[in-house]
Amino acid sequence: MSKRVSLLLAGTLMLALYTGLSLAHDPKEHKAESPDCAALKEMDVSQTDKNDPVMKAMLQKCQDEQHADDRDNRDEHTIADSHHSDEDSSAHESH
Amino acid sequence: MKYLSALLIFCGVAVLGVGGFIYSGAYQIGADVPHTTPVSWVLEILRERSIERAARDIPVPELDDSQLLLAGGPDYNEMCSGCHLEPGRTESDMSVGLYPAPPDLTTHDEEEEHGETQAAARQFWIIKHGIKATGMPAWGPTHDDQRIWAMVAFLQKLPELSELQYQILTARGEDDSGHAH
Fold first, then answer.
1. pTM above 0.80, yes or no
2. Contacts of B4 (CB under 8 A, 6+ apart)
3. Mean pLDDT over all residues of chain B?
4. Do A35 and B167 touch (CB under 8 A)?
5. Which residue of A has its CA nearest to B175?
6. Distances (CA, A) of B26 to A6, B7, B20, B35
7. Buried b vs exposed e over A45-61: b needs ≥16 C-beta within 10 Å?
8. pLDDT tens-digit readout, B25-43
9. What residues does each domain of chain B span?
10. Using CB atoms and an 8 Å cut-off, which of residues 27-66 of chain A contact chain B?
11. What is the pLDDT averaged over residues B126-151?
């Protein structure tokens, strides 16, 4: 194989990798299937059994989500914002 | 002696008859025509007895666990809900078109039929090994036992989940949750 052909191949491969990576990191893609945690916050959490695995799992999920948000988009507070206000209450007990 | 040869002739004719029927192509194999009653009956017993025997000695781990639900939810949503549905959805192309039809796992109460532990062991075995000629795939070759148990744990809760609960538990979210941090 000539040097030119292999250079061309390597270049194409790198370009393909680069586009793949940048597409995968488009934050809008992730947003599409974020859990609807805002709705969870509207529920009266105090009325529910905190030892119920389903409730516990939902609270955990929404906390993980918030941590991920804090890390990924420091200046793009969308979902994360809705949690900061009532951090104190039930959510932390589940840890 | 006379009776014996009569019996032999009868059996021979029966075997030839069944063989001839199978070979003739007269049986309706299309998924849009149900099996005849005797065939359904034979297949049902074959399936139930086989699963019961295979799943009998599978030890069932503790399934009432939030981490398992978080791990099993997204997997169920991506790999199974197309056939087995989700809260708020009563049919899909798969649930209508497959024969035998995939049971709606959002309403289906296994525990009533089989008892809690037996139901979980049965589901684990079915998910891992699949069921021949039904459209139910074996997930064992591509998923480890831990991941399958997580889906079994999720299935125990699925019939009681609201649409909102289902959405939150099954969304992959930002960082592929389902692990502890």
1. no
2. none
3. 93
4. yes
5. A68
6. 60, 27, 10, 13
7. beeeeeeebbbbbbbbb
8. 999 999 999 999 999 999 9
9. 62-170
10. 30, 33-37, 39-40, 53-54, 56-58, 60-62, 64-65
11. 97
Given this model, what pLDDT does residue B110 score?
66
Contact B129, B123 (CB under 8 A): no
Q: Does A67 lie at the interface with B, CB-CB under 8 angstroms?
A: yes
What mean pLDDT is predicted for residues B82-98? 96
Out of A53, A57, A61, the one facing B173 most closely (by C-beta) is A61
B171/A34 CB distance under 8 A: yes
Q: Angle, nearest 10°, between helix axes B66-79 and B145-157?
A: 90
**Cα angle: B167, vertex B109, B91; to 5 degrees:** 55
The domain at B62-170 falls in which architecture?
Orthogonal Bundle (1.10)
Contacts of A53 in chain B (CB under 8 A): 64-66, 69, 157
| In contact, B138 and B129? CB cutoff 8 Å | yes
CB contact at 8 A, B154 and B69: yes
Q: Chain B within 8 Å of A69 (Cβ-Cβ)? A: yes
Closest CA in chain B for residue A56: B66
Per-residue pLDDT band at A34 (split at 50, 70, 90) = confident
Is B85:B92 a contact under the CB 8 Å cutoff? yes
What pLDDT, on the 0 to 100 scale, is given for residue B29?
A: 95
Which residues of chain A are within 8 Å of residue B174 when distances are taken between CB atoms? 30, 34, 64-65, 68-69, 72
Nearest CA to B73 among B162, B157, B131, B180?
A: B157
